[in-house]
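Hey, can you fold this one?
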Amino acid sequence: MKIVKVIHEDISEADEVIKQSFSLQTCNLGNFFKRHDTILYRKSRRIWKEDFLHYQQNKEFVKEVIPILSKDISEQSENLEIISIEKAREKYPKTSNLSIGTYTLHPYDGGRLARLEHYHKNLALEKDDELITLLGKMGAKTLKIIERNVQHNSGSGGVKAETIPADAKTNLNLSQQSEKIKELIVTFEGNIVEIDSDLLRNSLWFSSDSRLGAIFESRRFISNKIQKYTLKNIYTETFDFDFKLAAKYLTVRTDLEAEYHFVSKKERFFNVEFGE
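Sure. Predicted structure:
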């Protein structure tokens, strides 16, 4: 997993030193031994043989370990990028709200960064927001979203309803909703829209989604168009996110793994009704 640290100014001269320092601070010895266990075991058998306590032999083993550890740290530092905010804006122009902080690459777009803090929570919200936008651009008139915990599907306690008028191109952020089971109703102006032929092709999250593809084809080409449809949207992919590594770079202590499990237990039903 690549770590991108965005800083105030360009300090390219000290870049390598800082990278090495960060690698040493975040070095995971458990992972190190997993990666190099076979070669270290061979060397230990060759050096120690039957006498594991001899001082000189221990020193020889350390001499064997240091070059391997040094190389491993060097390789890890290649996955760390320290970049000024100005250069980050040029290199990762699609990043939303880029500021000083620590990021990793967006799972679906190498030209976009995703902040480590609340990584999965933010991506799940981004996915929901894009689905709302796409449905609006396909001519949605009303959209009723019901979110519930997968493990607690019964009951209606704590359900809140909210009506939000929105232009079909407006990207709505669900982050203001309550964390409890909830219902959200989105209403669009209901104008006739011209659907962009590249709408799904340019989508970040739904370019290959068969359900959206069916709606897209129906809304564009079929005279007997889809008028109502229910989509279930979930977020369960970890994208090989290294929770332990990320935790070492966080400035505010956050249990990212617990946050992921919380998000992954949610399911959202998008009940959409289209206009003409």
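Residues 151 and 265 are 7 Å apart (CA to CA). Let me know if you want another pass with a different chain boundary.
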